[in-house]
Amino acid sequence: MSSVVRFSRLLAPAMVRHRLMSNFRPEKALSLSSVSDDHSVWYDYSLNNSEQFWGDLAAERLRWRRPFDRVTDCDMERGIFRWFDGGQLNVCENVVDRHVTTDPDKVALIWEKDEPGEEERVTYKELKSMVCRLANVLKSQGVKKGDRVAIYMPVSPLAVCSMLACARIGAVHSVVFAGFSAEALRSRIDDAQASVLITADEGVRGGKTIPLKATVDKALEGTAAVNRVLVMTRTGNVVPWNTERDIRMEDAMALVSESCEAETMDSEDNLFLLYTSGSTGRPKGIAHTQAGYLLYASLTHELVFDYKPGDIFACVADIGWITGHSYVVYGPLSNGATTVLFESIPTYPDPGRYWEMVSRLKITHFYTAPTAVRLLIKAGDEHVHKYDRSSLRLLGCVGEPLNVEAWQWYNLVVGDARCPVVDTWWQTETGGIMIAPKPAPNGVKPKPGYPMIPFLGIDPVLVNEKGEIITENDVSGLLCVRKPWPGMARTIHGDHNRFLDTYFSRFPSLYFTGDGARRDRDGYYQITGRVDDVINVKGHRLGTAEVESAIDEHPDVAESAVVSFPHDIYGEGIYAYVILKDTGDLHSQTEITDSIKNIVKHRIGSFAVPEVILLTPALPKTRSGKIMRRVLRKVAANEADDLGDVSTLADPSVVDVIKKRHIETANNY
Ligand code: WT7
User: Fold this and answer.
1) Distance of CA 330 to the CA centre of its chain
2) CA of 274 to the centre of ligand 1 (A)
3) What is the C-alpha end-to-end distance of the chain, expressed in Å?
4) Residue of 330, 426, 433 best suited for mutating to test ligand 1, as the one with most atoms within 8 Å of CB
5) In 389-521, which ranges are continuous DSSP H helix?
6) CA distance linking residue 221 with residue 182, whole number of Å
7) How confident is the model over 148-196, as pLDDT tens digits?
């Protein structure tokens, strides 16, 4: 045990700080679970000596080909963030090759296929050979450093290999969730100008096949960007094939060498793009870079989850989301962990699936979304009790607020009150976990409904509408971050001005998260939800404007307004107010609402289909023509008795019409 740790136990905090400043070895110290009992000592150190803190960690945790010259160079006003400049490394080498040297036969991936009990294991050595082969295939198709590669795949070892193969040759991956429609896929391919796309013949989820290749073909009809499609065999069923363009992945991999030199990358070269929703109809390609992202994913994975060698880490998110990037792939693999790839759904073949898997694979860490927890609460405790969960050590959650009732159930029924419940708050843009009860192994005793405390080096602040920082506790405000951190997004692909506008211009010198939060008397954070037109539905992030623009494509629709309403299981449900054109030739209401739902399904994906569609002759608008969404939200939430000030409405009688229709519609669904 290092002297730092012993000292931190014995000395008063001020002296520890002095000691840490002169003799700080974060890697050695922080990777010991017996790190200082007092989180605040480390936290203060990380904020007050941030260059040294991040610099030491980067130097010790990452394998560099050339050391960096400078820890950080940031300018919040211009949205410029550079970390570890001058340094060169390869991310794939850091997450794969390193462990092949030390522990080649350790299992890196456990693929939990849709069919329970059919798991497949991939060791670090096998992973390296698969990644290298795939990297060579990409190279043989002309993919070069900086080129974009789209990945539209089921959660599987070859999907992970696709990401890592890109990292190995310096290509930029853009994973698109395989539940997105052809049109949504096409717009992401176009925006990124991806030249190669990797997919599978079909996906399998909950026993049903999903026509991935057919969807890809449809997406590619409308874009000239992609000239090669690599197809993994998942079901082996016959799928449409274009011999000029499509290549069977396994065949191509068999023909190339199993070694591939990793490209030397600069710290700030682009690692991946990941599209996420904002408050306009157009998704944004969030760009993350190499060293800073990897360091942050790696450190948060180890400390927030108290990861130890030998643990079996299961983050059941899809790789199409940032959670999958950071805590299925990069974080766990950087730490040499065994990571579970979950292809299925929580209710297949029955709602005991997760816990049956936990007992079969001896999972130690389980990380999911609140919507899944709530769904399983409804299904009944017997599905949990049936299985041995004694391997579990920690339960994590992310994506939306974990309400107290769901927290208690997760803690008592799943964890037998034995495993800390770690509610983690973060975003696609933050790269990794920002607020969690265990920002260091000891952390604090979790408080239901609260992500609680900032991770080391993270400086959250609450501001009021005027942008003034609120310093007291027991307050609510808009959640911002004052200090840059290595894992943060660097830009929006092709639109740096949008990056600045969205995150840095509302409150100068602060990163604005788009979330509202409360800080309680003890200084613990609780997230109250988005304050912009972004909603979190079933763990998916969606812009209301995206759903509106899909609905507006319906030939009978004149205008629409989409809001969210509180939903027992999904967190938020989607509620669409729709004005039909006065065409005279109206179909039945059910026909119209069904065809509107269909359009949303085709434009975005089934997860974006509104729960409620209310046909209305008008929308509540101000005299300047702005829709008063507050009124629409209140009506959707059954809170129409308390509408607040509606005196600025051009025609207040619209509100009564909507209220009446809401009650009628509510009776019908
Ligand atoms: C938005 C980010 C980060 C991975 C999953 C979602 C909401 C996230 C929590 C939490 C309350 C949460 C926020 C945030 N959110 N975690 N623990 N408690 N809300 O990533 O799709 O980028 O969405 O999810 O509203 O802004 P994302």
Assistant:
1) 13
2) 15
3) 62
4) 426
5) 404-409, 496-499
6) 10
7) 999 999 999 999 999 999 999 999 999 999 999 999 999 999 999 999 9
Specify the amino acid at residue 405: E
Alpha-carbon distance of 327 to 250, in angstroms, equals 27
Sequence letter at residue 236? G
CA of 610 to the centre of ligand 1 (A): 20
The rounded distance, in Å, linking the Cα atoms of 343 and 486 is 30
**Which tens digit of pLDDT belongs to each residue from 592-602?**
999 999 999 99
- CA angle 64-333-178, nearest 5°? 120
**Pocket of ligand 1 contains residue 428 by CB under 6 Å:** yes
Domains of the chain, with CATH numbers? Answer: 1-64 (no CATH), 535-666 (3.30.300.30)
Q: For residues 476 and 528, give the distance between their C-alpha atoms in angstroms, rounded to a whole number.
A: 9
Question: Does 26 sit in the ligand 1 pocket, CB within 6 Å?
Answer: no
Quickly list DSSP for 518-543. EE-TTS-EEEEEESSSEEEETTEEEE
d(CA 337, CA 128): 15
Please tell me if the CB atom of residue 527 comes closer than 6 angstroms to any atom of ligand 1.
yes
Question: 536 alpha carbon to ligand 1 midpoint, in Å?
Answer: 8
Q: Which amino acid is at 165?
A: A
pLDDT tens, residue by residue, 514-534? 999 999 999 999 998 889 889
Question: pLDDT digit string (tens) for 238-273?
Answer: 999 999 999 999 999 999 999 999 999 999 999 999
| Rounded alpha-carbon distances, angstroms, from residue 180 to 187, 219, 346, 664 | 11, 11, 19, 32
Which residue has a Cα nearest atom 23 of ligand 1? 427
Query: Beta strands of 277-412 (E only): which ranges?
Result: 284-289, 312-315, 338-342, 365-368, 394-397
Tens-place pLDDT, residues 88-147: 999 999 999 999 999 999 999 999 999 999 999 999 999 999 999 999 999 999 999 999
